[in-house]
Specification:
This protein is of the alpha/beta class. Helices cover about 40% and strands about 15% of the residues. It has a seven-stranded parallel sheet, with helices on both faces.
Length: about 240
């Protein structure tokens, strides 16, 4: 029986590669995007859903549909959809208000926190009734979310949101352990990828990262590393 994976932000970059990789491997893929029409077509076993993580009503609606209507058991969630303030150049002063302390805006920084951490966690919570007994919850993180390796000043919005999501994955993993469940939660640094954010000089393709993640699921690597912050080369990243 085919396993089922939920991938948020499945319309471009790493998310698109994840959808293609898992669909081609025979998985049933539930893919989300802000507009379903932007998701890839022509792939078997892929079903699209609308999800804008800035909108709590989208989180509630998606979870309700999957839990109460589709009622499909989900084996893996990959929280891939994200928000980077530097992409908001059309909003005057926005990036600076999330990057520099003298222009700091709690409202704008909170937008990063909500999209990159708070609403993904709420979605996870609402999906608990349909998670399989051995479910894996993965948050696509970043070295920017690490306290140990970060040396660049400022960047409160994006960095803070990734650090927050890392901590939430840690907390979720401990909940799973306390409940004596076989479920696991992982924070995963994909590496410097060739995407709109990473640029063409990056060291690894999204296809390679997707293949690595599939391999780590298939061979049980994540199951023995619950609660860790990992790199896709299977090394452990500093918190």
């Amino acid at each position: 029986m085919a396993r089922t994976i939920l991938i948020t932000g499945g319309n471009r970059g790493l998310g698109l590669s994840l959808v293609e990789t898992f669909a081609n491997a025979g998985w049933k893929v539930l893919a989300t995007a802000r507009t379903v029409a932007s998701l890839p077509t022509g792939l078997e076993n892929v079903k699209g859903y609308t999800l804008d993580l800035a909108r709590q009503e989208d989180v509630v609606k998606l979870a309700s549909k999957l839990v109460n209507e589709d009622k499909v058991k989900i084996d893996v969630i990959i929280h891939n959809a994200g928000f980077n303030p530097k992409d908001q150049k059309h909003r005057e002063g926005y990036f600076e208000s999330t990057f520099n302390i003298d222009k700091f805006s709690a409202e704008n920084v909170n937008e990063s926190m909500t999209i990159n951490a708070l609403h993904p966690m709420e979605l996870t919570g609402r999906m608990m009734p349909v998670l399989s007994e051995n479910a894996i919850v993965i948050a696509i993180s970043s070295w920017f979310g690490s306290f140990e390796t970060e040396t660049i000043p400022g960047h409160y919005g994006y960095r803070g949101s990734k650090a927050l999501m890392n901590m939430m994955m840690k907390g979720l993993s401990l909940e799973f352990t306390k409940a004596k469940e076989n479920r696991v939660a992982i924070a995963l640094n994909p590496g410097w990828m060739k995407t709109d954010m990473g640029g063409s000089n990056a060291s690894i393709s999204t296809e390679e990262v997707s293949s690595r993640i599939l391999g780590m699921i298939d061979d049980g690597f994540f199951e023995t590393n619950n609660g860790k912050f990992l790199n896709t080369d299977r090394t452990e990243h500093g918190w």
